[in-house]
Amino acid sequence: MSPLQNALTFCSWVKSLSSNSHPTWLSYATSSHQHEILITDNGIYNYFLGTNSDLSSEINPSKGTWNHHCTSWSTSSNTRKVYFNGKLVGQGATTSRTYGLDGFLFFGNDNHYDGSSRDANEIFGGELFKVKFFAKELTGEEVLGMKEAGLCSDVEESYGRVRYLRWEDLLLEQRNGNITEVEPGCPARTCPTEKETRNETEEPTPGSREGRNDAAEESETECECEEKKEITQWDILYSEEIFNRTLTVDFPEKIRSYWDILGNFVGVTITESVITHFKIFQSCRD
């Protein structure tokens, strides 16, 4: 949690399916602080740095529907803000301390730190999708943008390294209990055909340089779509040992298979925009 000690936003799409009184979908606790984070899908628990706000009058999800939950905070504001479906439904002052470290992050029940205690009334019993932690206090506009982009969008990917804990990473972690993966119902994304791409770039207003650039950018963005789902090796570029370093011919062996792409950029510094360019180069070069 150390990168999140001074600023944090956590969000998730949550589908409520349980009639338990306190269906807890997220909790974080340390040996010193039992309720650093404790969130239920019905708004009863919104524990944050040990203090709860009962927002059940504002958060009353219908069973079986997806809802967008977010909570944001930073030491600069010392204010916790709770958003439900993009709307600010509660806020309040918090203690001036930072988050405790070396705790346990749980999904699906209360976390009593020792890992042995559970409460049957706090079993979540629903569905989660795209749980993510940002090392930043997101604004209300940014939270609303994620909600309006919808369940099936990739809008969170635009935050790059600020999206510190990613849904893709959570899916790789060890799981215990009655947990089943189900499809969220999102349609498969496909890149445009060569003919579609050519038509898009040939149709801007004659003589309009701006029109041609916009069309080219749109085709590049669309052409990234399949790559985003399949190429996880790009995450290596975001690692501490590589990001903000200059690319040399001694690039780590673990991504040698991408040298035909990366070799074109020897001498540049690995930044957010450069990685984006790598992705476009990989997915559109043919």
Helix and strand arrangement:
Layout: E1 7-15, E2 24-29, E3 37-40, E4 46-48, E5 66-74, E6 79-84, E7 87-93, E8 104-106, E9 127-134, H1 140-149, E10 163-165, H2 167-170, H3 194-202, H4 209-223, H5 225-230, H6 259-262, H7 272-284
Antiparallel strand pairs: 1-5, 1-9, 2-3, 2-8, 3-4, 5-6, 6-7, 9-10
Percent strand equals: 15-25%
Number of domains: 3
What is the overall shape? globular
Counted by DSSP, the helix tally is 7
Q: What's the average pLDDT?
A: 78
CATH class of the largest domain: Mainly Beta
Structural class: alpha+beta
Number of E strands: 10
Largest sheet data: 6 strands, antiparallel
- Please tell me how large the radius of gyration is: 22 Å
| CATH domain fold name of the largest domain | Jelly Rolls
| Largest sheet, spatial ordering of strands | 7-6-5-1-9-10
Uncertain runs are 200-232
Q: Give the N-terminus to C-terminus distance in angstroms.
A: 41 Å
Structure description:
Strand 2 (24-29) and strand 3 (37-40) form a beta hairpin. The protein has a 6-stranded antiparallel β-sheet with strand order 7-6-5-1-9-10. It is globular, with a radius of gyration of 22 Å. The longest helix has 15 residues, at 209-223. The protein has 3 domains: 2-170, Sandwich (Jelly Rolls); 188-223, no CATH class; 232-286, no CATH class. The protein is built from 7 helices and 10 strands. The protein has helices spanning 140-149, 167-170, 194-202, 209-223, 225-230, 259-262, 272-284, and strands at 7-15, 24-29, 37-40, 46-48, 66-74, 79-84, 87-93, 104-106, 127-134, 163-165. Mean pLDDT is 78; it is low at 200-232. The two termini are 41 Å apart. Helices cover 21% and strands 20% of the residues. It is α+β, with helices and mostly antiparallel strands and 286 residues long.
